[in-house]
Amino acid sequence: MVIGWSLFFLLLEPEWKVLAQFSEESVEVGVPVDLVLQVQGEVLADIQLADSSWQALRDQGFLVRSRENRWADSGNARMQWEQRVELIPLHSGEVALDPLVVQIEEQGLALSTPVLNLQVRPRPWRIEVELDHPAKLFAGQSFLEHVIVRSPDRVIDGWEWGLAVRHQTPLPVKPLEEPSFWPPSLQESSEDRTWEGTCQLAALVPGSHRWELPLTGTFLENGVRRRVTRLVQWQWEIHERPAAPLGHQDSGATGQFTLTWQVTVRGAPDHEDCHLLDLIIRGAGTVPDGALPDLAHQSQFLVHSSELDVAPGVWRQRFVISAGSSPGPLPVQWTYFDPDQGSYVTLEECVEFPTTTRPARGWRSILWFATGVAITGLLGYWLWKTRRQ
Q1: CA distance 218 to 239
Q2: Strands 26-28 and 116-121: what pairing?
Q3: How far is Cα 369 from Cα 381, in angstroms, rounded to an integer?
Q4: Are residues 117 and 134 in the same domain?
Q5: Which of 27, 130, 131, 218 might form a disulfide with 157, Cβ 3.0–4.6 angstroms?
Q6: Among 293, 292, 354, which residue's Cα sits nearest to residue 321?
Q7: 2-26, pLDDT tens digit by residue?
């Protein structure tokens, strides 16, 4: 292939011409190459590559890393616009780049480049990527995605993820950690030439999903830094959550949990004659808002309830229960989905309230008054009897 500028003249607008070429005739897969576009004209204008052309580059297997625009005086009162686009070919083979469209908005023009050819050579960079997550996922389930990257060729500046090349909408998973990030940042491990990272995700959309992301590392080869990119395929099989068994209300929680309870006698703030009941969920998984146990069926005893933030892996629902009319043994039932078993689990507890009661405040006042009257009477009688003697 002859390397040179591809030169085009518009018949109707001879003062404009567009030129295009690759900076290299042949590159290795994953190694950057520059696409250089030039437009020459007599006036300064707003020039840009059409949006459809950016998408065409991605569709033909290129990762767009960066772009740079500049204007320069090319002599003879003509200005030259140049754009350099750094591309990374993600697949080996002969690439025939379809014509790109350069738009000159002030002139209402659209100039096309010719078909450009690039030879992309295969190169075994020996980058091994291992993705580890549960084999079977259910919608609503949280899980840990573990990423391990190994390479005998020593990476010197770490790894970075690029933009998505092909993806589905909506995203089938979402990050649960703060700050929210996905995919995970990779840290060098104690094992030589191994980088690892983890992130907590929640499965959202049932179905078979694939997400492709380019992973780029910088290597030192013969004293020269080389940025190399490999396409990593993330795949998830997310299953539909089954319906809960008859007679059981699905809380919406997913994972593995335990249920305990705690009663504080007459310990409710601002409610002296009320008990505090805490229902405590512990475990690993996802508990959405409003999924904690509910005591609406005991509303005749319930003053109010609230969810409390406790700690990671601990959820607490607090109830204020009237002590004037004790509800007696109170059954509590909570159903969640266990993705490991692929079935629902129902936790059951029976809350026992204290049977002892203390006198109401009005009777206590009467008793104290009666006691005071009796003591005063006895003291007066003793003084009267002493004086008569």
Answers
A1: 38
A2: parallel
A3: 19
A4: no
A5: 218
A6: 354
A7: 344 443 333 334 467 788 999 999 9
Place of tokens 């390479």: 151
15: containing domain? 6-121
Residue 116's CB is within 10 A of a number of other CB atoms, namely: 17
CA angle 131, 134, 139 (to 5 degrees): 115
Tens digit of each residue's pLDDT (9 = 90 or more) over 233-243: 888 999 999 99
As given in the structure block, the two tokens for residue 302 are 């319930």
Beta bridge partners of 68: 84
Instruction: Report how many helices (DSSP H) and strands (DSSP E) the chain contains, helices first.
Output: 2, 26
- Picking from 239, 258, 279, the residue at the C-terminal end of a domain is 239
Three-class SS state of 384: helix
Of residues 285, 283, 280, the one with CA closest to residue 253: 285
State the pLDDT confidence band at 365, using cuts at 50, 70 and 90: low
Residue with the two structure tokens 């697949």: 91
Q: Is 368 inside any structural domain?
A: no
